[in-house]
Amino acid sequence: MCISEMPGIMALRKRAADDRPLKNAKIVGCTHINAQTAVLIETLAALGANLRWAACNIYSTQNEVAAALAEAGFSVFAWRGETEEDFWWCIDKCVNAESWQPNMILDDGGDATHLMLKKYPAMFKLIKGIVEESVTGVHRLYQLSKGGKLSVPAMNVNDSVTKTKYDNLYSCRESIIDSLKRSTDVMFGGKQVVICGYGEVGKGCSQALKGFGCVVYVTEIDPICALQASMDGYRVVKLNEVVRNVDIVITATGNKNVVTREHMDKMKNGCIVCNMGHSNTEIDVNSLRTPDLTWEKVRSQVDHVIWPDGKRIILLAEGRLVNLSCSSLPSFVVSITSATQALALIELFNAPPGRYKSDVYLLPKKMDEYVASLHLPTFDAHLTELTDEQAKYMGLNKAGPFKPNYYRYVTRMLKFRKSYSTGSF
Ligand SMILES: NC(=O)c1ccc[n+]([C@@H]2O[C@H](COP(=O)([O-])OP(=O)(O)OC[C@H]3O[C@@H](n4cnc5c(N)ncnc54)[C@H](O)[C@@H]3O)[C@@H](O)[C@H]2O)c1
């Protein structure tokens, strides 16, 4: 079903099938395993790659998909509801196999990279490139690079415009509603919600909930994002200021201990607590595993945590990514991310020696534009072509790239600030 909603990755599969640009690539994949990932895996195989795959999250695997992939002959190590120990066992199995020397890593969160680097350093040295999808994994890569420990080139797919804007913003805008509705049947109108973090994910969640009539508060550490939130009509607060009154708390920071036991002690009865960020440490769930609190599973991915006075908070997915645990992602958005990942793999795998050093790179802008163009026919969108005169006037190539690398496609407020500071309205 999702194939028809994934036009970009299917177009790429068709266009590159004859060239097989990933012939001889041996890819370790560590991502969420769902129907859309299967389309990516089949595409990479059609482009010539040999693959082994594990899950990057213990709750998000669609078992039927993992089984179907295994039946089709792919080496997949994942199931829904792995323990922490199973999780690392699966990645280890995926990385380390007889007569298998991987040369590429496709990671989401940096766990496959981390395991290979720590446990199999000799194997890691022979890797040609890493493609990383998440904010968290990219952060780890930059830390490795800064510490001089990154010995291979890596592509930061997360910050490709085509990934950040569509996956983090538009996808989360839809899936936050879906996951809260499916797991709690909550009515949104008039509810007070606090969203921690006003980055791409936080912006998507805030927009969606505001659209349903929620009163939305935002917490931020960054004055730029806090100002954006204020100008977008949200009250920017400290969590402590609203935590006693809100009905829903959502984290979207990629940070740790954003919601602590102290906050949860103050929450009101029935408060829903969930996390949209990659890391499962945003909500300090471990602090809830104390003898004075009782846990009651009310349905899959939904726990009541009960205080001695009878107060309950509703914790979703034990603080892990709520949309991937309690709902699914829109295939169209995944198509954009998958096409970006596939192109990044092709680019790193085929790059002539010297083009990329042991550092973290962004996908060239031209490829971002290519991924977007693969998805335009779905909307019957007709691009305007530059005339020769216009191209000369703007100093652009008629075939792109159309924007400089530093152009971030941000909200009007920031663009306004930039042109104001350069005096170029
Ligand atoms: N659920 C999903 O489907 C999905 C999709 C994409 C990304 N993500 C994950 O969501 C997280 C956020 O992604 P993003 O693209 O919005 O990143 P981002 O960097 O654009 O935004 C995160 C924001 O959180 C703020 N922040 C950091 N610490 C904070 C704190 N203690 N309190 C309040 N605000 C704080 C930062 O200033 C930043 O503005 C990442 O972990 C990312 O991997 C999830």
Automatic annotation (TrEMBL):
<dbReference type="Pfam" id="PF05221">
    <property type="entry name" value="AdoHcyase"/>
</dbReference>
<dbReference type="InterPro" id="IPR036291">
    <property type="entry name" value="NAD(P)-bd_dom_sf"/>
</dbReference>
<feature type="binding site">
    <location>
        <begin position="199"/>
        <end position="204"/>
    </location>
    <ligand>
        <name>NAD(+)</name>
    </ligand>
</feature>
<comment type="pathway">
    <text>Amino-acid biosynthesis; L-homocysteine biosynthesis; L-homocysteine from S-adenosyl-L-homocysteine: step 1/1.</text>
</comment>
<dbReference type="InterPro" id="IPR000043">
    <property type="entry name" value="Adenosylhomocysteinase-like"/>
</dbReference>
<dbReference type="GO" id="GO:0033353">
    <property type="term" value="P:S-adenosylmethionine cycle"/>
</dbReference>
<feature type="binding site">
    <location>
        <position position="323"/>
    </location>
    <ligand>
        <name>NAD(+)</name>
    </ligand>
</feature>
<dbReference type="GO" id="GO:0005829">
    <property type="term" value="C:cytosol"/>
</dbReference>
<comment type="similarity">
    <text>Belongs to the adenosylhomocysteinase family.</text>
</comment>
<keyword id="KW-0554">One-carbon metabolism</keyword>
<dbReference type="InterPro" id="IPR020082">
    <property type="entry name" value="S-Ado-L-homoCys_hydrolase_CS"/>
</dbReference>
<keyword id="KW-0520">NAD</keyword>
<protein>
    <recommendedName>
        <fullName>Adenosylhomocysteinase</fullName>
        <ecNumber>3.13.2.1</ecNumber>
    </recommendedName>
</protein>
<dbReference type="GO" id="GO:0004013">
    <property type="term" value="F:adenosylhomocysteinase activity"/>
</dbReference>
<feature type="domain" description="S-adenosyl-L-homocysteine hydrolase NAD binding">
    <location>
        <begin position="168"/>
        <end position="329"/>
    </location>
</feature>
<feature type="binding site">
    <location>
        <position position="220"/>
    </location>
    <ligand>
        <name>NAD(+)</name>
    </ligand>
</feature>
<dbReference type="Pfam" id="PF00670">
    <property type="entry name" value="AdoHcyase_NAD"/>
</dbReference>
<keyword id="KW-0378">Hydrolase</keyword>
<dbReference type="InterPro" id="IPR042172">
    <property type="entry name" value="Adenosylhomocyst_ase-like_sf"/>
</dbReference>
<dbReference type="InterPro" id="IPR015878">
    <property type="entry name" value="Ado_hCys_hydrolase_NAD-bd"/>
</dbReference>
<dbReference type="GO" id="GO:0006730">
    <property type="term" value="P:one-carbon metabolic process"/>
</dbReference>
